[in-house]
């Protein structure tokens, strides 16, 4: 790779670039948690500001009794509803990305069990279980 870099530099008559390799390891879980928390906080702030704005818009619509004012108020309420859904969706996606710890003893469903062995071994197992 270094040889290729030198050849290209000679052909283009430019200084060769120093290639630095990053050895920094970033855990994806931390990045996902940070991004999810950032998005959640932004949506929460928008919902709080939207609630305040929606109350003012509804008040203006009541006072003006103009159909367009009510249409704007309805649109604002719809947007707030969508932001609430987005907030819940972020939480759901975050939970889906986290590794799941399962306890096999409590959540074990067996649809079909097959015993491989002789009938004598099966009888012995059944007697031990009693």
Helix content: 55-70%
Instruction: Find the structural class using helix and strand composition.
Output: mainly alpha
Largest sheet: none
- Number-wise, the strands total 0
Distance between the termini: 69 Å
Number of helices: 4
CATH hierarchy class name of the domain at 26-98:
Mainly Alpha
Order of helices and strands: HHHH
CATH homology superfamily of the domain at 26-98: ESAT-6-like
Query: Which segments are poorly predicted (pLDDT under 50) over 5 or more consecutive residues?
Result: none
> What percentage of the residues does DSSP assign to strands (E)?
under 5%
Mean pLDDT: 82
- The CATH architecture name of the domain at 26-98 reads Orthogonal Bundle
Q: Compute the gyration radius: what is it? A: 31 Å
CATH fold topology of the domain at 26-98: Helix Hairpins
Instruction: Give the overall form.
Output: flat
């Amino acid at each position: 790779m270094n040889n290729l870099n030198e050849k290209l530099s000679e052909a283009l008559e430019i200084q060769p670039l120093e290639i630095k390799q990053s050895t920094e390891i970033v855990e994806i879980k931390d990045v996902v948690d940070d991004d999810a928390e950032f998005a959640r906080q932004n949506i929460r702030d928008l919902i709080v500001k939207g609630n305040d704005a929606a109350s003012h818009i509804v008040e203006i619509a009541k006072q003006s009794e103009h159909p367009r004012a009510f249409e704007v108020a309805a649109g604002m309420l719809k947007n707030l509803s969508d932001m609430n859904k987005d907030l819940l969706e972020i939480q759901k996606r975050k939970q889906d990305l986290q590794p799941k710890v399962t306890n096999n003893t409590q959540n074990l469903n067996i649809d079909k069990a097959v015993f491989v062995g002789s009938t004598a071994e099966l009888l012995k197992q059944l007697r031990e279980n009693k």
